[in-house]
Write a structure and sequence with these properties.
Elements: E1 9-14, H1 17-20, H2 33-36, H3 39-42, H4 45-50, H5 52-68, H6 73-84, E2 88-93, H7 99-102, E3 109-110, E4 113-120, E5 126-128, E6 147-151, H8 161-169, E7 173-177, H9 189-195, E8 199-204, E9 216-219, H10 222-234
Parallel strand pairs: 1-2, 1-7, 2-3, 7-8, 8-9
Antiparallel strand pairs: 4-5, 4-6
Helix pairs in contact: 6-10
The structure holds adenosine-5-diphosphoribose (APR).
């Protein structure tokens, strides 16, 4: 079903597929990150406690990839939509890269944290992450050698959930872009938005695990179908 995308309060959820064409890996596609690394070793608090050096090496490599990457046409289209559309656009991302910000998007809600930030596991202080981090890096606030990436690991609570829930409860259009619908709470946002009366649209390379929950699904690479959709919204 093709839905009208006239909307005043749009909530957009993005996943790794948004940054795939910028060269950053996805997780569950063929040769995705979780097919090459054991997420229990590099994306859980227990893995960090066992081997903080390995975890920092994993995120240092992803930070280097991010710094070498550029936003693609989909990132730029979403930044343009936010800037020029009459609608209020809330950008929620599961991604930890800063490509939306580098494309000009503002107030991006990073529910799984950000590679550009560091967190002190001792006092909770946050600061801008250096390009490469080591466990012995002292916290600028308390001096403890308990530096970790400011990333939400499996088993931890996603960030900014109150802000996200409020936006979903008030949305009249929810769009999920480049996410497989495998990880909650993000995978449940489409149902929360629909319950609040929003129309729901999925933009993905392939149908996601929860494709059946959307009013409409459009398939193709984000760098093509996201700019096409944004052009429609701005026409
Ligand atoms: N254009 C659009 N979508 C794409 C493209 C592309 N070029 N390439 C891949 N995709 C889609 C895939 O079809 C898939 O639906 O991106 C999605 C990638 O799925 P995942 O690898 O599971 O990534 P994501 O949904 O973001 O994972 C969610 O899981 O591991 C955790 O914290 C991690 O934030 C991540 C979360």
């Amino acid at each position: 079903m093709t839905i009208s995308t006239r909307a005043e309060r749009i909530v957009i959820l993005t996943g790794a597929g948004l940054s795939a064409e910028s060269g950053l890996g996805t997780f569950r596609d063929k040769d995705g990150l979780w097919t090459r690394y054991d997420l229990n070793e590099v994306a859980t608090p227990e893995g960090f406690a066992r081997n903080p050096v390995l975890v920092h090496e994993f995120y240092n490599a992803r930070r280097a990839n991010m710094l070498a990457a550029s936003p693609n046409a989909a990132h730029h289209a979403l930044a343009d939509l936010q800037q020029f559309a009459p609608a209020r656009v809330t950008l929620v991302t599961q991604n930890i890269d800063d490509l939306l910000e580098r494309a000009g998007a503002r107030e991006v809600i990073h529910m799984h944290g950000e590679l550009t930030r560091a967190l002190c596991a001792a006092c909770g202080h946050r600061w801008d992450a250096p390009e490469a981090m080591q466990p012995a890096d002292p916290c600028p606030a308390c001096g403890a050698k308990a530096t970790r990436p400011d990333i939400v690991w499996f088993g931890e609570f996603p960030y900014h959930m109150e802000r996200i829930e409020a936006a979903l409860a008030n949305a009249d259009l929810f769009v999920a872009i480049g996410t497989s619908g495998n990880v909650y709470p993000a995978a449940g946002f489409v149902q929360e938005a629909a319950f609040a009366g929003a129309r729901t649209l999925e933009l993905n390379l392939e149908a996601s695990a929860n494709a059946g929950l959307f009013d409409e699904t459009r398939l193709g690479p984000a760098s093509r179908i996201v700019p096409d959709w944004v052009a429609e919204m701005r026409s």
